[in-house]
Amino acid sequence: MIVGAPKRKEDETYFSDLLNLYNWKNIVIKKPAPFQLFTQSYSEADICFDLRENNAEYSKSLPIKIFYYIGSGKPVIYTHLKAIEKHLDISKFGYSVDPEDSETIAKYISGYIKNPELYDLHAGNARKEYEEKYNWNNIRNSFISFIRQSVQ
At CA 133, angle to CA 110 and CA 1, rounded to 5? Predict the structure, then answer.
């Protein structure tokens, strides 16, 4: 299952051509969901990806979706971003990749298929990481303090 849509027309054409060329069965493509339905939209997914361009803006931003994914107990494959590296040890629950390196990304996906124990470990670690470090009950006070300091 793929949830999302290409940003550029040429990406849409490229992806459509790949689907036609390989005639893959059992691929479901869902349109991006509104925020209220976001977690429901990927609930049946096994791995969550965010393979965004690694530019200066993205590299310094910590993508909020990663917290939804790990909170859902999903292993992740994410573009290697400085902000993620600084704040999360992604190796506990997934992989940090160059989004242009499709061979490595395919290797990681195949690794989960060949080694279900690794998949289960990463899925469990994702949920554990969220529960121990990133759920609202654990970050509430520091977040509220941050907001109060920022407003002053």
Answer: 30
Q: Are 97 and 104 in contact (CB under 8 A)?
A: yes
Please state the rounded mean pLDDT for residues 72-94. Answer: 94
Q: Determine the average pLDDT of the residues in 76-102.
A: 94
Q: DSSP for 67-82, please give it.
A: HHHHHTT--EEEE--H
Alpha helices in 23-135 (DSSP H): 38-41, 56-59, 65-71, 82-87, 102-114, 116-129
CB atoms < 10 A from the CB of 126, how many?
A: 24
Count of structural domains, the chain? 2
Looking at residue 145, which CATH number applies to its domain? Answer: 3.40.50.2000
Same domain, 25 and 54: no
Taking 90 as the threshold, does the pLDDT of residue 66 lie above it? Answer: yes
CA separation for the pair 105, 9 (Å, rounded): 23
Task: Give the tokens for residue 103.
Answer: 């061979």
Range of the domain at 1: 1-45
User: C-alpha distances in angstroms, 16 versus 32, 33, 127?
Assistant: 17, 20, 34
